Amino acid sequence: AHSVLGEANTIQSLGYLYLRCHKLDDAQALFERAAQLHQQAHSVLGEANTIQSLGYLYLRCHKLDDAQALFERAAQLHQQAHSVLGEASDIQLLGKVYLQRGELDQAQQMFDRALALHRQGHSQYNEATDVYYLGEVYVCRGKLQEAYALFERAIELYRHAHSLQDEAMVIEQLRNVSLLLGDSEKAEALVLPDTELCEHNEPSASGST
User: Fold this and answer.
1) What span, in angstroms and rounded, lies between the C-alpha atoms of 26 and 118?
2) Nearest Cα to Cα of residue 202 among 64, 56, 52
3) Rounded mean pLDDT of 109-123?
4) I need a labelling partner for 70 at 20 to 30 A (CA). Which of 52, 93, 132, 145 fits?
5) Integer angstrom CA distances of residue 63 from 68, 69, 70, 88, 119
6) Under 8 Å between Cβ of 127 and 143
7) From CA 131, how far away is CA 112, in angstroms rounded?
8) What is the mean predicted confidence (pLDDT) over 24-29?
Protein backbone atom coordinates (compact mmCIF):
# COMPACT_ATOMS: atom_id res chain seq x y z
CA ALA A 1 0.00 0.00 0.00
CA HIS A 2 2.89 2.33 0.77
CA SER A 3 4.34 2.02 -2.77
CA VAL A 4 0.87 2.52 -4.27
CA LEU A 5 0.39 5.64 -2.14
CA GLY A 6 3.79 6.97 -3.24
CA GLU A 7 2.86 6.43 -6.88
CA ALA A 8 -0.50 8.16 -6.30
CA ASN A 9 1.20 11.19 -4.74
CA THR A 10 3.72 11.41 -7.58
CA ILE A 11 1.01 11.22 -10.26
CA GLN A 12 -1.08 13.76 -8.36
CA SER A 13 1.88 16.17 -8.24
CA LEU A 14 2.36 15.76 -11.99
CA GLY A 15 -1.33 16.56 -12.42
CA TYR A 16 -0.87 19.85 -10.56
CA LEU A 17 2.10 20.66 -12.79
CA TYR A 18 0.08 20.03 -15.97
CA LEU A 19 -2.81 22.06 -14.52
CA ARG A 20 -0.52 25.04 -13.95
CA CYS A 21 0.76 24.66 -17.52
CA HIS A 22 -2.86 24.63 -18.81
CA LYS A 23 -2.46 21.09 -20.20
CA LEU A 24 -5.93 20.18 -18.99
CA ASP A 25 -6.43 16.84 -20.77
CA ASP A 26 -3.16 15.51 -19.38
CA ALA A 27 -4.00 16.86 -15.91
CA GLN A 28 -7.41 15.20 -16.00
CA ALA A 29 -5.97 11.80 -16.90
CA LEU A 30 -3.39 12.06 -14.11
CA PHE A 31 -5.90 13.15 -11.46
CA GLU A 32 -8.23 10.29 -12.44
CA ARG A 33 -5.38 7.78 -12.16
CA ALA A 34 -4.21 9.26 -8.85
CA ALA A 35 -7.73 9.04 -7.42
CA GLN A 36 -7.88 5.35 -8.35
CA LEU A 37 -4.53 4.70 -6.66
CA HIS A 38 -5.49 6.62 -3.51
CA GLN A 39 -8.65 4.52 -3.32
CA GLN A 40 -6.60 1.35 -3.81
CA ALA A 41 -4.25 2.45 -0.99
CA HIS A 42 -7.24 3.30 1.26
CA SER A 43 -6.11 6.93 1.51
CA VAL A 44 -9.39 8.78 2.00
CA LEU A 45 -7.72 12.17 2.34
CA GLY A 46 -5.58 11.64 -0.76
CA GLU A 47 -8.63 10.57 -2.77
CA ALA A 48 -10.58 13.58 -1.49
CA ASN A 49 -7.83 16.05 -2.43
CA THR A 50 -7.45 14.53 -5.89
CA ILE A 51 -11.19 14.58 -6.57
CA GLN A 52 -11.28 18.22 -5.46
CA SER A 53 -8.50 18.99 -7.96
CA LEU A 54 -10.39 17.17 -10.69
CA GLY A 55 -13.48 19.20 -9.84
CA TYR A 56 -11.46 22.41 -10.02
CA LEU A 57 -10.27 21.40 -13.48
CA TYR A 58 -13.88 20.87 -14.61
CA LEU A 59 -14.83 24.23 -13.08
CA ARG A 60 -12.12 25.92 -15.14
CA CYS A 61 -13.54 24.22 -18.24
CA HIS A 62 -17.07 25.43 -17.30
CA LYS A 63 -18.32 21.83 -16.96
CA LEU A 64 -20.40 22.87 -13.97
CA ASP A 65 -22.49 19.73 -13.47
CA ASP A 66 -19.39 17.51 -13.44
CA ALA A 67 -17.60 19.93 -11.14
CA GLN A 68 -20.54 20.01 -8.72
CA ALA A 69 -20.70 16.21 -8.49
CA LEU A 70 -16.96 16.00 -7.79
CA PHE A 71 -16.97 18.74 -5.14
CA GLU A 72 -19.92 17.06 -3.40
CA ARG A 73 -18.04 13.74 -3.40
CA ALA A 74 -14.83 15.41 -2.20
CA ALA A 75 -16.74 17.10 0.66
CA GLN A 76 -18.07 13.70 1.78
CA LEU A 77 -14.58 12.23 1.74
CA HIS A 78 -12.98 15.20 3.51
CA GLN A 79 -15.66 14.94 6.20
CA GLN A 80 -14.91 11.22 6.50
CA ALA A 81 -11.19 12.07 6.84
CA HIS A 82 -11.99 14.76 9.47
CA SER A 83 -10.39 17.45 7.29
CA VAL A 84 -12.25 20.64 8.18
CA LEU A 85 -10.24 22.80 5.78
CA GLY A 86 -10.59 20.30 2.95
CA GLU A 87 -14.36 20.19 3.37
CA ALA A 88 -14.46 23.99 3.62
CA SER A 89 -12.62 24.36 0.31
CA ASP A 90 -14.96 21.87 -1.39
CA ILE A 91 -17.97 23.88 -0.20
CA GLN A 92 -16.35 27.17 -1.25
CA LEU A 93 -15.83 25.71 -4.72
CA LEU A 94 -19.45 24.53 -4.79
CA GLY A 95 -20.37 28.15 -4.07
CA LYS A 96 -18.41 29.20 -7.13
CA VAL A 97 -20.32 26.65 -9.24
CA TYR A 98 -23.65 28.09 -8.07
CA LEU A 99 -22.40 31.65 -8.54
CA GLN A 100 -21.40 30.91 -12.14
CA ARG A 101 -24.90 29.53 -12.73
CA GLY A 102 -26.48 32.62 -11.20
CA GLU A 103 -28.08 30.51 -8.45
CA LEU A 104 -27.48 33.14 -5.80
CA ASP A 105 -29.36 31.64 -2.84
CA GLN A 106 -27.42 28.37 -3.12
CA ALA A 107 -24.15 30.24 -3.67
CA GLN A 108 -24.69 32.35 -0.55
CA GLN A 109 -25.54 29.27 1.48
CA MET A 110 -22.31 27.56 0.37
CA PHE A 111 -20.10 30.57 1.08
CA ASP A 112 -21.69 30.99 4.51
CA ARG A 113 -21.00 27.31 5.29
CA ALA A 114 -17.43 27.55 4.00
CA LEU A 115 -16.87 30.68 6.08
CA ALA A 116 -17.99 28.92 9.27
CA LEU A 117 -15.68 25.97 8.55
CA HIS A 118 -12.70 28.16 7.66
CA ARG A 119 -13.18 30.05 10.94
CA GLN A 120 -13.30 26.71 12.74
CA GLY A 121 -10.05 25.74 11.00
CA HIS A 122 -8.44 29.15 11.72
CA SER A 123 -7.72 29.82 8.04
CA GLN A 124 -7.80 33.60 7.77
CA TYR A 125 -6.83 33.67 4.09
CA ASN A 126 -9.68 31.38 3.08
CA GLU A 127 -12.06 33.21 5.40
CA ALA A 128 -11.20 36.38 3.45
CA THR A 129 -11.95 34.58 0.19
CA ASP A 130 -15.35 33.40 1.44
CA VAL A 131 -16.22 36.96 2.49
CA TYR A 132 -15.07 38.24 -0.92
CA TYR A 133 -17.37 35.81 -2.74
CA LEU A 134 -20.27 36.74 -0.46
CA GLY A 135 -19.62 40.31 -1.62
CA GLU A 136 -19.83 39.11 -5.22
CA VAL A 137 -23.20 37.50 -4.46
CA TYR A 138 -24.49 40.82 -3.10
CA VAL A 139 -23.19 42.68 -6.18
CA CYS A 140 -25.18 40.25 -8.33
CA ARG A 141 -28.23 40.93 -6.16
CA GLY A 142 -27.75 44.69 -6.66
CA LYS A 143 -27.22 45.18 -2.90
CA LEU A 144 -24.17 47.39 -3.27
CA GLN A 145 -23.95 48.78 0.27
CA GLU A 146 -23.85 45.23 1.67
CA ALA A 147 -21.29 44.24 -0.97
CA TYR A 148 -19.15 47.26 -0.06
CA ALA A 149 -19.12 46.27 3.62
CA LEU A 150 -18.16 42.67 2.75
CA PHE A 151 -15.34 43.78 0.44
CA GLU A 152 -14.02 46.05 3.22
CA ARG A 153 -14.01 43.06 5.58
CA ALA A 154 -12.27 40.87 2.97
CA ILE A 155 -9.55 43.53 2.55
CA GLU A 156 -8.99 43.60 6.31
CA LEU A 157 -8.69 39.80 6.45
CA TYR A 158 -6.34 39.62 3.45
CA ARG A 159 -4.20 42.32 5.07
CA HIS A 160 -3.94 40.26 8.26
CA ALA A 161 -3.09 37.21 6.12
CA HIS A 162 -0.34 39.23 4.36
CA SER A 163 -1.85 38.62 0.93
CA LEU A 164 -1.12 41.86 -0.91
CA GLN A 165 -2.15 40.56 -4.32
CA ASP A 166 -5.63 39.59 -3.17
CA GLU A 167 -5.96 42.76 -1.09
CA ALA A 168 -5.25 44.82 -4.21
CA MET A 169 -7.78 42.84 -6.26
CA VAL A 170 -10.56 43.48 -3.72
CA ILE A 171 -9.65 47.18 -3.47
CA GLU A 172 -10.26 47.37 -7.23
CA GLN A 173 -13.66 45.76 -6.67
CA LEU A 174 -14.34 48.27 -3.90
CA ARG A 175 -13.52 51.09 -6.33
CA ASN A 176 -15.97 49.65 -8.84
CA VAL A 177 -18.73 49.43 -6.23
CA SER A 178 -18.01 53.01 -5.09
CA LEU A 179 -18.43 54.20 -8.68
CA LEU A 180 -21.68 52.24 -9.02
CA LEU A 181 -22.86 53.96 -5.84
CA GLY A 182 -22.00 57.32 -7.41
CA ASP A 183 -19.18 58.08 -4.96
CA SER A 184 -16.19 58.86 -7.20
CA GLU A 185 -14.34 60.64 -4.36
CA LYS A 186 -14.36 57.49 -2.24
CA ALA A 187 -13.21 55.45 -5.24
CA GLU A 188 -10.27 57.79 -5.86
CA ALA A 189 -9.31 57.73 -2.16
CA LEU A 190 -8.82 53.95 -2.17
CA VAL A 191 -5.10 53.21 -2.32
CA LEU A 192 -3.63 49.98 -3.62
CA PRO A 193 -0.94 48.28 -1.50
CA ASP A 194 2.63 48.90 -2.60
CA THR A 195 3.45 45.72 -4.45
CA GLU A 196 4.50 44.72 -7.93
CA LEU A 197 2.86 41.32 -7.48
CA CYS A 198 -0.68 42.59 -7.96
CA GLU A 199 -2.40 40.59 -10.66
CA HIS A 200 -6.12 41.15 -10.74
CA ASN A 201 -7.27 37.58 -10.47
CA GLU A 202 -9.94 35.99 -8.33
CA PRO A 203 -8.81 34.46 -5.06
CA SER A 204 -8.54 30.71 -5.29
CA ALA A 205 -9.68 28.09 -2.86
CA SER A 206 -6.91 26.37 -0.98
CA GLY A 207 -6.23 24.57 2.24
CA SER A 208 -7.50 21.13 1.27
CA THR A 209 -4.87 19.18 3.15
Assistant:
1) 31
2) 56
3) 97
4) 132
5) 9, 10, 11, 21, 30
6) no
7) 8
8) 94
